[in-house]
Amino acid sequence: MLVRFSCGCVGTKPVNDQVWCFISCDRAYEDNEIHIYIRESLVKKQFEPISAEEEHELITKISDLVHNGYKFQSIQRILGVASLNHS
User: Fold this and answer.
1) CA distance 29 to 27
2) C-alpha to C-alpha distance for 72 and 82, rounded to whole angstroms
3) How many CB atoms neighbour CB 11 within 10 A?
4) How far apart are CA 29 and CA 36, in angstroms?
5) 24, 42, 51, 71: most buried, per Cβ within 10 A?
6) Distance CA 16, CA 68 (A)
7) Rounded to whole angstroms, how far apart are CA atoms 76 and 87?
8) For 23-77, how does the pLDDT look when each residue is reduced to its tens digit (9 = 90+)?
9) Using H for helix, E for strand and C for coil, what is the string for 17-58?
């Protein structure tokens, strides 16, 4: 279940003193763009569930981000492009 915090952030309920935040209240939410953050500062804030429709929309967008990441990695492998992570 995704929740909206009193500040306006949207993310997961707190687990182990962490919150996965998908829509941050202090960042412009343009073009329905999702950014994923871990926000310990949200742990003590009040929250309430978002609507089922909004939750479905966000889960679909998160799923698309994950799927597109896998597609990108597959294209890199097919083309023989080195990973951008130089660790």
Assistant:
1) 6
2) 12
3) 24
4) 12
5) 42
6) 29
7) 17
8) 888 876 565 678 888 999 999 999 999 999 999 999 998 888 888 877 777 777 7
9) CECEEEECCCCCCCCCCCCCEECHHHCCCCEEECCHHHHHHH
